[in-house]
Amino acid sequence: MTQTESKQTKVKVKLGENNYGKAEVNLMKINRSGKRHEIRELQVRVGMIGDFDAAHSQGDNSELIATDTVRNTIYGLAKEGFKSSPEEFGKELVAHFTKTGAKVSGGFMEFTEHLWDHVQVNGQGHDHSFVRQMPKRTGRIESEDGKTFKVTSGIAELYVLKTTESGWENYLLEERFTTLPETHERVMATFVNAKWEYNTDSADYDAVWEKVFKQLQVTLTDHYSPSLQNTLYLMGEAVLSACPEISRIWFRMPNMHHLQYNLGRFDIENNLEIMHVDPEPYGLMEGWVERA
């Protein structure tokens, strides 16, 4: 192969949609203002959008905010800021970088909040000892100009289960590879992962999240579930009925199979008491529930 043949002809390209920032910044803020402490723990990602063409195409870093600065800013602004919800803190961060970054026109902040509760001692929460809860709070705050914001809030890994009042019947049986028998009595379990959008520019995000969190659990209990799809739909309907601030809600709900173990081989009766938890493969239901 000649030297000329080894040279590859470069095609014309241009930079498409892009952003840069800092991810997996782990922040805990402890409120020590009184005898009873409160804590909030976030994992934060901040991404900036703007005129970054020269940095990519020419290696010109002039007037760019260093990602190390982004990390320091998150901690620094949390000291006096982050007084209410993570969503409001996200707005503060995006507005700050848009204002201080010469080439930054907008951006986004994503968070995962690990929830903590006071350890219960003799029926009361201890003032300064905590236990981490399983579900997580999530969200994304984005803006094209640092002034107007789109907020999406969410919940992740809410593990719920009902031991009765669930079934799976009247589905397509006359199919070559169908072996699953119908049932009107089964254990139904799922991780509820949800995100929702707002129809207002401002909301009490903490209060809305708490209302959604409780409503999802209540709805699990209030109906016979002929399918996980039906429960998904009813949860969405209930949330939109309870929260006028929410325009639509999306769910991702895997069917975490709890299968009756065959004890008949040992002449032991098993009336849906001994179950084999089969984590995978699993059925997976996803969908938006929206206002009509």
What is the compact description of this entry?
The protein has 292 residues and is an alpha+beta fold. It has helices at 3-6, 53-57, 67-80, 86-100, 205-221, 228-242; strands at residues 20-31, 38-50, 104-121, 124-143, 150-162, 188-198, 246-260, 275-290. Helix 3 crosses helix 4 (86-100) and helix 5 crosses helix 6 (228-242).
Question: Would you write up a description of this structure?
Answer:
- There is one protein chain.
- This protein folds into 2 domains: 20-148, Urate Oxidase (Roll); 158-290, Urate Oxidase.
- The chain is built from 6 helices and 8 strands, in the order αββαααββββααββ.
- It has helices spanning 3-6, 53-57, 67-80, 86-100, 205-221, 228-242; strands at residues 20-31, 38-50, 104-121, 124-143, 150-162, 188-198, 246-260, 275-290.
- The chain has an 8-stranded antiparallel beta sheet with strand order 1-2-3-4-5-6-7-8.
- Strand 1 (20-31) and strand 2 (38-50) form a beta hairpin.
- The protein starts with a helix and ends with a strand.
CATH topology of the largest domain: Urate Oxidase
From the alpha carbons, calculate the radius of gyration and give it in angstroms: 25 Å
Judged by helices, strands and strand pairing, the structural class is: alpha+beta
Largest sheet: 8 strands, antiparallel
Task: Identify the CATH class of the largest domain.
Answer: Alpha Beta
CATH architecture of the largest domain: Roll
State mean pLDDT (0 to 100 scale): 96
Helix content: 10-25%
Contiguous runs where pLDDT drops below 50 for at least 5 residues:
none
| Total domain modules | 2
CATH superfamily of the largest domain: Urate Oxidase
Query: Biggest sheet: strands side by side, in what order?
Result: 1-2-3-4-5-6-7-8
- Count of individual beta strands: 8
**Which strand-content bin applies to the residues?**
35-45%
Could you give the distance between the termini? 65 Å
**H/E element sequence:** HEEHHHEEEEHHEE
Discrete helix count: 6
Per the principal axes of the C-alpha atoms, what is the gross shape?
globular
